[in-house]
Amino acid sequence: MLVDTHAHLDALENLEEVIAHAKAAGVSKIITIGTNIESSKKAIDIAEKYSNDDIKIYATVGTHPYDGRDEIAQLGIEKCLAPIKSLAGSSKKIVGVGEAGLDYYFTTDKKIEKTTEQEKSVQRKLFEAQIKLANAVGLPLVIHCRGGWDEIFDLLGKTGLEKGVFHSFTGSVADAQAACALGFYVSFSGIVTFKNAKEIQEAGKVVPSDKILVETDCPYLSPEPFRGQKNEPANVRITAEFLAGIRSASYSEFAQASMQNAQKLFNI
Q: Cα-flanking dihedrals φ and ψ of residue 76, to 5°?
């Protein structure tokens, strides 16, 4: 059985059908992720409403560095995280804090503005605050990183985060090794199946079997051959099968290891 360790079920419709598809694909547990105050509340509601004997659904609560920026601008970091902290203790379905981290854009695409130094500073402060929150409530941190790998490792080293996962990993082999050296788990989404994701695939080969996780990040990042289509938890099996293949492992061995890792990290 598989665990989809990172899904955005609040962004999907027809959840009964989605969950049935996941069950048929061999998924036994799904963690739906909070990215701001409102989505964190929705994640808890979904976990409590749709979890059943066949598929257990859990939730995280947190503030994404990009998705939560309007709240941060309005409320400030302290007032934004106060309700997140309250939510963290509001339900037994909550198994993590996040997603939190750094989201730096280095693009010439005119539709996406480059992250300013001021924005980076706010993101770093927000990330540090959520590291402290995760430690305070005794939950693992779900870490988002786009760019800024050196900074994120530096912040993690300084703040003493006890447990967490780098979700939808897009770094290098060296980044994966650095994450594992700090004691964190590394989770792979459908991106690892993309034909142009050779560096991520190499990272997928070297992460130790006791540190690797799988996810969909649905409704985004559908694996090949469904790239560009709306993703759902059932597709985590495709990613798991791909990773097993490039690691020269059997699917059953890989599925068992990743499931045990998810259970250990999130206490599920």
A: 85, 160
Domain count, the chain: 1
**Type of residue found at 87:** L
What's the CA angle centered on 33, arms 32 and 38, to 5 degrees?
Answer: 115
Dist. CA 156–CA 153, nearest whole Å: 5
The CATH number of residue 31's host domain is 3.20.20.140
Query: Residue 31: beta bridge partners?
Result: 58
Tokens 């988002």 -> residue: 144
Determine the structural domain holding residue 128 and report its residue range.
2-266
CA dihedral 145, 148, 152, 155 (to 10 degrees): -150
pLDDT in tens, 185-204: 999 999 999 999 999 999 99
Distance of CA 149 to the CA centre of its chain: 16
Q: Give, in order, the Cα–Cα distances in Å from 106 to each of 113, 127, 150, 166.
A: 8, 19, 15, 20
Q: What is the Cα–Cα distance from 203 to 77, expressed in whole angstroms?
A: 34
Q: How many CA atoms lie within 13 A of 31 on its CB side?
A: 33
Task: State the amino acid at position 91 in one-letter form.
Answer: S
Q: How far is the C-alpha of 169 from the C-alpha of 149, rounded, in Å?
A: 11
In 3D, which of 211, 158, 203 has the Cα closest to residue 184? 211
For 43-70, how does the pLDDT look when each residue is reduced to its tens digit (9 = 90+)? Answer: 999 999 999 999 999 999 999 998 888 8
Q: What is the pTM of this model?
A: 0.95
Beta bridge partner(s), residue 146: 103
Q: Which of 161, 171, 155, 124 is nearest to 141 (CA)?
A: 161
CB-based contacts of 69-76 (< 8 A; 24+ apart in sequence): 69/119, 69/122, 71/36, 71/37, 72/122, 72/126
Residue 114 corresponds to which tokens in the numbers above?
A: 């480059």
